[in-house]
Amino acid sequence: MSAAPLDLLLLPTWLVPVEPAGVVLHDHGLGIRDGRIALLAPRAEALKHPALEVRELPGRLLTPGLVNAHGHAAMTLFRGLADDLPLMTWLQQHIWPAEAKWVDEDFIRDGTELAIAEQLKGGITCFSDMYFFPAAASELVHKSGIRAQITVPVLDFPIPGARDADEALRKGLELFDDLKHHPRLTVAFGPHAPYTVSDDKLENIRMLAEELDAGIHMHVQETAFEVQQSLEQHGVRPLARLARLGLLGPRFQAVHMTQVDDDDLALLADSNSSVIHCPESNLKLASGFCPVERLWQAGINVAIGTDGAASNNDLDLLGETRTAALLAKAVAGSATALDAHRALRMATLNGARALGLEAQIGSLEIGKSADLTAFDLSGLAQQPVYDPVSQLIYASGRSCVEHLWVAGKPLLESGRLTRLDEQRITANARAWGARIAGQA
Ligand SMILES: CSC[C@H]1O[C@@H](n2cnc3c(O)ncnc32)[C@H](O)[C@@H]1O
Ligand SMILES: [Zn+2]
Fold first, then answer.
1. CB under 8 Å to 39, separation ≥6 — which residues?
2. Do the beta carbons of residue 51 and residue 5 sit within 8 Å?
3. Ligand nearest to the backbone CA of 313
């Protein structure tokens, strides 16, 4: 037994470590010291360890914090602006013009803060962001205490914050340098999609990502139209083109992948790339269905993301995971596809792995960062509890998120944000809505 007392000992009714897979621990304690998980033991044994604070959590389930592996945080301010449209109409006729008109650093600060607040309240301890002015977004991550992968946006045309791809990359490299020692922030490259980034830019990104050992996060094969267009323009499917350019590998994060043929499957599996599944955005934009079960059975790491609030329209990863579990069964034609335990793994450890963070977060293991979510399963509509993971995925909404810690720091206590001002954030978002609606 270590001489130093634990900072905090949590005593939930159920504890799901995610690794090993499928395990539910009843009446166990989890101890935190210096922001890390220092103890995992049956309750009686855990109570023998001195602790500065002991917290009973009856009727609560403790899990690793949820990882939202794909989103566009500040798009919260465009929530509901252009609904019920297919991807290219939505993007080209509504979202890109709105972004050109409204997105500046203030928009990013207010929209990202709103996204962080919404995500913390929904049990998310880590998110990936692909949006403009990444340096401004990273300031909000730093201030709020959440963990994030911030990506450097690259497109062939001018974007808010960069006149061209070279400027975006130059500013991005400064961000890599500024954040290289940050304990909760990682930076990755975010080329938007195969249809908006040319070969020379992608080759440059591959070289820089190799040098920096950085992730590459990209929308890929979101629709059948995208695949068709690539066949016409490049003679190969988008994923094959990216493979030809050397982009695939363990740090490659392919977002969406609703179109998957046998060659795609082999490319993803052989390169150890991750797929990030965004089922609600794919459903709402009628983009297609990612064959999650087929990918999983091929050994491909599949994580989950909400996408932006303009195509979802929420940042509710628990709800997204439920949708993913239900949809996987329909797509596979099998009720055994993506069971509740695997769905939770997808929302935690697989997300961590996709973002290159699996050594630090994603499961409750000694030495990992104490990034945790406590869910209240004591409500009427959650009774009786045979399997808390089944209850969480199939019978609970994000309102049951009660407490949340990142690196051992409490960021949500009894449903209340500890570091962010919910009223001010809400008022700011309303003010942006009034301005945008007034001039739309
Ligand atoms: C590189 S900045 C992000 C860029 O992506 C746009 N976007 C948001 N959601 C999607 C999606 O599902 N597919 C393609 N592009 C999307 C966002 O509006 C920004 O312009
Ligand atoms: Zn997206």
1. 6, 9, 29, 30, 31, 33, 46, 49, 366
2. yes
3. 1
- In order of 30, 58, 122, 129, 372, the CA distances from 375 in angstroms are 15, 10, 10, 25, 10
Q: Which of 75, 79, 90, 91 for a ligand 1 pocket mutation test, highest count of atoms within 8 Å of Cβ?
A: 91
Q: What is the pLDDT of residues 14-53, one digit of tens each?
A: 999 999 999 999 999 999 999 999 999 999 999 999 999 9
Asked whether residue 330 carries a pLDDT value surpassing 60, the answer given is yes
Nearest to 330 by CA among 291, 388, 282, 369: 291
Task: Give CA–CA dist 173/9, Å, rounded.
Answer: 41
409 CA distance to ligand 2 middle (Å):
29
Tell me, in angstroms, the distance from the centre of ligand 1 to residue 154's CA: 11
Among candidates 61, 93, 141, which has minimal Cα distance to 401?
61
Spatial CA neighbour of 169 closest among 218, 202, 141, 194: 202
Q: Which atom of ligand 1 is nearest to the CA of 75?
A: 18
C-alpha 259 – ligand 1 centre gap (Å)? 18
336 burial level (CB within 10 Å; 0-12, 13-18, 19+)? exposed
Half-sphere exposure of 411 (CA within 13 A, CB side): 31
Ligand 1 lining (C-beta closer than 6 Å): 72, 91, 95, 99, 130-131, 153, 190, 192-193, 219, 222, 281, 307-308, 311
62 φ/ψ angles, rounded to the nearest 5 degrees: -105, 125
Do residues 350 and 302 lie in contact, with contact meaning Cβ atoms separated by under 8 Å? Answer: yes
Here the tokens at position 33 are 């010291």
Q: What does the CA dihedral 72, 78, 83, 88 come to, rounded to 10 degrees?
A: -50
How much is the pTM? 0.98
Return the pLDDT at 120: 99
In the structure encoding, which two tokens stand for residue 371, read together? 């990034």
**What residue type is assigned to position 105 of the chain?**
E
268-299 residue pLDDT tens: 999 999 999 999 999 999 999 999 999 999 99
- Contact predicate 69/347, CB 8 Å: no
Q: How many residues does the chain have?
A: 440
pLDDT for residue 439:
77
Give the ipTM.
0.99
